[in-house]
């Protein structure tokens, strides 16, 4: 009995075009993985665990006022763990409060486009897994929605995960 070959094909391509070429098992480009940590809603031990498990290349703090006095840890312990487990920590304030009208949606979208253009060059130097610190879960959702609206740009594919 002969086993058929397994072929990877694009789901959007009609069957007649599938024979033209085998797709790669691995993506052609790196997918940026943003792990959003809602700092106002997380315990200090969970934050430290996410730093260890994510194996992120960097931590980007999008909060207007960064603070690390979480329940169970203090600022010096948090910063020490960040510097030991990642290559870089950067603060980049971004207003991600839920928009009230279309004008605010466009402002957030433009801010996220600028942030992603900086992040794209940053990813080439540091890696694709990045921990993003936000204040709340709601801000993480606003970031995810904004990223979804700009996926067609030249920033590449990105996924947003929410750390709990």
The gist of it:
With 164 residues, the protein is of the alpha/beta class. It is built from four helices and five strands, in the order βαβαβαβαβ. The longest helix has 25 residues.
Rg, nearest Å = 19 Å
The CATH topology is given as: Cobalt-precorrin-4 Transmethylase, domain 1
**Strand runs, count:** 5
Q: Terminal Cα separation, in Å?
A: 49 Å
Plain-language structure description:
The chain is of the alpha/beta class and 164 residues long. The protein has a single domain, classed as Cobalt-precorrin-4 Transmethylase, domain 1 (3-Layer(aba) Sandwich), CATH 3.40.1010. It is 37% helix and 16% strand. The protein is built from four helices and five strands, in the order βαβαβαβαβ. The termini are far apart.
Helix and strand arrangement:
Layout: E1 32-38, H1 44-54, E2 58-61, H2 75-85, E3 88-91, H3 102-126, E4 129-134, H4 137-149, E5 158-162
Notable characteristics:
single chain; 164 residues; alpha/beta; 37% helix; 16% strand; globular
């Amino acid at each position: 009995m002969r086993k058929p070959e397994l072929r990877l094909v694009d789901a959007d391509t009609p069957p007649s075009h599938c024979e033209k070429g085998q797709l790669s098992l691995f993506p052609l480009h790196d997918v940026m993985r943003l792990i959003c940590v809602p700092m106002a809603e997380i315990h200090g031990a969970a934050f430290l665990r996410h730093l260890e498990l994510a194996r992120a290349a960097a931590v980007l703090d999008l909060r207007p006022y960064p603070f690390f006095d979480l329940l169970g840890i203090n600022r010096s312990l948090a910063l020490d763990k960040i510097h030991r487990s990642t290559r870089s920590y950067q603060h980049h304030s971004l207003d991600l409060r839920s928009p009230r009208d279309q004008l605010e949606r466009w402002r957030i979208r433009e801010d996220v486009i600028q942030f992603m253009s900086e992040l794209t060059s940053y990813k080439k130097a540091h890696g694709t897994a990045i921990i993003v610190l936000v204040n709340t879960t709601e801000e993480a959702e606003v970031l995810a929605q904004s990223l979804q609206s700009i996926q067609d740009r030249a920033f590449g594919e990105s996924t947003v995960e929410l750390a709990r």
